[in-house]
Specification:
Helix 14 (327-337) packs across helix 15. The chain contains 18 helices and 15 strands. The chain folds into 2 domains: 10-146 and 301-352, D-Maltodextrin-Binding Protein, domain 2, CATH 3.40.190.10; 148-300 and 374-423, Periplasmic binding protein-like II (D-Maltodextrin-Binding Protein, domain 2, 3-Layer(aba) Sandwich). The strands form 3 sheets. Strands 3, 4, 5, 8, 9, 10, 11, 12, 13, 14 and 15 form an 11-stranded mixed sheet that branches. The chain has a two-stranded antiparallel ribbon with strand order 1-2. The chain has helices at residues 10-19, 50-67, 79-88, 100-108, 116-119, 127-132, 155-160, 172-182, 196-205, 223-238, 252-257, 270-277, 314-324, 327-337, 344-353, 369-374, 387-398, 408-423; strands at residues 25-27, 30-32, 40-45, 70-75, 95-97, 134-135, 138-139, 142-154, 188-192, 241-243, 261-267, 283-286, 299-307, 340-341, 379-380. By secondary structure, it is α/β, with parallel strands linked by helices.
């Protein structure tokens, strides 16, 4: 997504210039400093679990053996807090997970090396992911992976309702009919987490979105978004859709895994949860439905590898990032803990390896193509500084759609007002 505030890049340039030394290497116009071997790098991550932690550690060891370097992998319990403290203390990690909500502020503070094209050309990655880490036309951090939303279906519930492949929720009308048919015997047809990070997909499917095409204005209160909100409200009022908190679940995946939901809307992170926590549930994954105007829509969530502008080892850090983002290593990460590669070609290769429609095993993957194809038209998160607080207010009102205590038009108008205030403080 194009950033909505512009900086000159002077701060970042000043930091990088201060770290230059004789013999500085040049890569895609970015000054790099330090040796490329015999170096110890600090790599801060925010792991989703043991599988991701172990995969990062294995990659660090493998690169170290190839290059004669060492990597200390630091698994942060609170990445944003620990990174903030590290930068404030003048000792940030050389390379780290650069989460989307932190990106804009890190660039403005001159903390992030302009390293994107120094690692690999932007064209090697999905455009939507590159946009997430591009500020003022400059590609700063390398997309690590991506996750998109899709619909997960409990196969036993589907068959018990007499539904077939002809009934798959390819459109809003079919999703409504499926949710109605599946709501019985204490099971809700569709359960989703009460957040913009789920129902926002319907905005895109209605032809709406979060911002205008130029990325300069918020468009939350558009007629298209209102259509989407009314669609969700209609399902909720009829009881065919419930929010996870209404069924005693912490998120949609929990409701699905515990049998309280016949369908849910989650990203490919649900694969690991199903393998670990609910291995006996037979399920399949299908793409998000097409909206009434024929619009495809889903949401994309991503992360990146960022490099500290003030690191004394940026040459080695770029080398390590290049290894992490290589096609072979991205495929290893995808198979290790279920994230989608950020490179289209590698994502397609991963999808080709996992094509089984129905799975129910701690070691099996569903057909992941439903997630992969979404990257082509997915809508990214809002990364404007301060938006998480604005979104939280909106999220708190979502459950009220079920009983009419929340009004869709008012919710969108308030979201628009508060989001605009971030652009014009």
């Amino acid at each position: 997504m194009k950033r909505t505030k512009v900086i000159t890049g002077v701060a970042a340039t000043a930091v990088m210039a201060a770290t230059m030394s004789p013999g500085t290497a040049m890569a895609a116009g970015t000054p790099l400093v330090g040796k490329t071997h015999g170096v110890t790098l600090n790599f801060m991550i925010a792991s989703s679990g043991p599988a991701e932690t172990n995969a990062d550690k294995a990659a660090a060891v493998a690169w170290g053996k190839q290059t004669g370097n060492k990597v200390n992998v630091i698994n942060a319990s609170n990445l944003q807090l620990q990174l903030t403290e590290a930068f404030a203390g003048g000792s940030p990690p050389d390379i780290f997970y650069a989460e989307t909500p932190m990106f804009e502020n890190m660039v403005k503070q001159g903390q992030l090396l302009l390293a994107g094209n120094a690692v690999y050309p932007a064209k090697d990655f999905y455009p939507s992911l590159v946009k997430e880490y591009t500020y003022n036309g400059q590609f700063y951090a390398v997309p690590k992976d991506s996750s998109t939303l899709a619909i997960e279906i409990n196969v036993a519930d589907w068959k018990a309702a007499g539904l077939t492949n002809a009934d798959l929720p390819t459109t809003w009308a079919k999703l409504s009919a499926d949710a109605k048919a599946l709501t019985k015997n204490g099971v809700t047809g569709l359960v989703v987490s009460p957040t913009l990070d789920r129902i926002g997909a319907f905005f895109k499917e209605a032809g709406g979105g979060y911002m205008n095409a130029a990325g300069t204005k918020f468009t939350f209160n558009s007629p298209q978004n209102l259509t989407a909100m009314k669609y969700v409200q209609g399902l909720a009022k009829q009881g065919y859709l419930k929010f996870s908190s209404q069924v005693g679940a912490g998120w949609g995946g929990e409701a699905f895994g515990t049998g309280k939901a016949a369908m849910t809307i989650e990203g490919n992170w649900i694969i690991g949860a199903m393998q670990t926590d609910y291995p006996k549930i037979q399920y399949q994954v299908v793409p998000m439905p097409v909206g009434p105007g024929g619009h495809h829509g889903t949401l994309v969530f991503t992360n990146a590898w960022g490099i500290a502008a003030g690191s004394k080892h940026t040459a080695a850090a770029v080398s390590f990032a290049k290894y992490l983002a290589s096609p072979a290593q991205q495929l290893r990460f995808a198979n290790a803990f279920g994230v989608m590669p950020s490179r289209p070609a590698v994502a397609q290769e991963w999808a080709a390896e996992h094509v089984k429609q129905v799975v129910a095993s701690g070691n099996q993957y569903p057909n992941v193509s439903a997630f992969v194809q979404g990257d082509a038209y997915a809508m990214p998160q809002v990364a404007t500084i301060g938006f998480p607080t604005v979104q939280a207010n909106f999220d708190n009102a979502i459950v009220g759609l079920s009983n009419g205590t929340s009004n869709p038009a008012q919710m969108l108008s308030q979201l628009q007002t508060y989001a605009n205030a971030l652009l014009h403080p």
